[in-house]
Amino acid sequence: MQLKKYIQTNFPGLTLKPNLTSEWKPSLHLELAKGLYPFKEGSDELNPAYFQTVYYQATSLFHDLFSAEDEILLVTNSYRYRKERRKKRRKLGVYLHYIKSKDVRSRLTQATLPYMFEDDEEKEEKYTCQFSLRCRKQDIRYSILIKAICNQDFPSLKPSIHNPSNLEEPDIFFMNTTRNIIFYMYDDRGCEVIARDREAIRPIYEKYADWMDESNRAEIDQYFT
Fold first, then answer.
1. Are 159 and 113 in contact (CB under 8 A)?
2. Pairwise CA distance, residues 91 & 98, whole Å
3. What predicted TM-score, i.e. pTM, was given to this entire model?
4. What per-residue confidence (pLDDT) applies to 168?
């Protein structure tokens, strides 16, 4: 199923962009590595324990949300300047580096959309290039991709997400089209999970209760209790 039709059918009215939890219910906002910090206390030295915890927690959550049998749409919003549209098309590293098979990559589709962020003063000069790929969990080098997403605010860490546009970092969405769940990790701090049916993510709500964003806990709880 094409991305646009899938969203219209299963998440009507949803715009696939950051802050999904403000657009859709039921939803979960989870924090990663609670109580830890990316830098060692009193210094600008990175804290390895923090990043190892983030990687572990994000990967554990991914395993619970996606099985080998599930069909996935891997969607990337790449933000670009309109003046660069006539230049030679650049390959998107998310799919070159993190999708194992060339045959799978051949299914990649692309759409041009308006710029996603209305409060940007330069919004008329920018646009969104949205890529989507139908695949399965085993087609993705997901553990490395998850690390790259976590590392995006820390240039010294590898792997990293290639960002030739030099605008906002690309936003990457993992969409489980079998269970109708969308998983979006915005960076090392946390992630959002939404579902068409709350029962699809009730196990996540129960298993990862300690990871809930406290500012949204009361609102989250009302959908599951």
1. no
2. 13
3. 0.94
4. 82
pLDDT band at 163 (very low <50, low <70, confident <90, very high): confident
| pLDDT 10s digits, 58-72 | 999 999 999 999 999
Hey, how many other C-beta atoms are within 10 angstroms of the C-beta on 99? 20
The residues, any chain, with a CB within 8 Å of residue 155's CB and separated by 6 or more, are none
Q: Give me the torsion for CA of 56, 57, 61, 66, rounded to 10°.
A: -20
Tokens for 79, please give them.
């933000």
**Alpha-carbon gap, residue 56 to 52, rounded angstroms:** 6
How does strand 190-195 pair with strand 27-31?
A: antiparallel
How many other CB atoms are found less than 10 A from the CB of residue 80? 20
89 or 211, higher pLDDT: 211
Alpha-carbon distance 78 to 162, whole Å? 11
3-state secondary structure string across 48-108: HHHHHHHHHHHHHHHHHHCCCCCEEEEEEEEEEEHHHCCCCCCCCHHHHHHECCHHHHCCC
